[in-house]
Amino acid sequence: MFIHLGGEKIIRSSELIAIFDVTIEESSKASKLFLEHARNENRMEAIGEEEPKSLVVTTEKIYYSPISSATLKKRARQPFAI
């Protein structure tokens, strides 16, 4: 199964670890450190030019998606989410 994250970015659902609202960046010290570490390792990628609404954590990268976390979670539950 695949999940469309916005723009031209599609991932395999088997790579998906978590989907968060973008506000998680400011919610705790642990989330800030986690994202800072990912940035330092060049594992962050913004999708498109729009304002990000969610963070998608995969086995390889963390994506800033312009699609809401609620919509992405619904897509992740669908059998063919493209």
SS-based class: alpha+beta
Helix share, percent: 25-40%
Number of helices in the DSSP assignment: 2
Arithmetic mean of pLDDT: 91
Which blocks of ≥5 consecutive residues have pLDDT under 50? Answer: none
**Intertermini distance:** 9 Å
Shape: globular
Order of helices and strands: EEEHEEEH
Note down, in words, how this protein is organized.
- The chain is α+β, with helices and mostly antiparallel strands and 82 residues long.
- It is built from two helices and six strands; from the N terminus they run E-E-E-H-E-E-E-H.
- The strands form two sheets. The chain has a four-stranded mixed sheet.
- The radius of gyration is 12 Å and the shape is globular.
- The relative contact order is 0.29.
Summarize the structure.
This protein is α+β, with helices and mostly antiparallel strands and 82 residues long. Helices cover 26% and strands 33% of the residues.
What is the secondary structure topology, with strand pairs?
Blueprint: E1 2-6, E2 9-12, E3 16-21, H1 29-40, E4 44-46, E5 54-58, E6 62-65, H2 69-77
Parallel strand pairs: 4-6
Antiparallel strand pairs: 1-2, 3-5, 5-6
Features:
single chain, 82 residues, alpha+beta, four-stranded mixed beta sheet, 2 helices
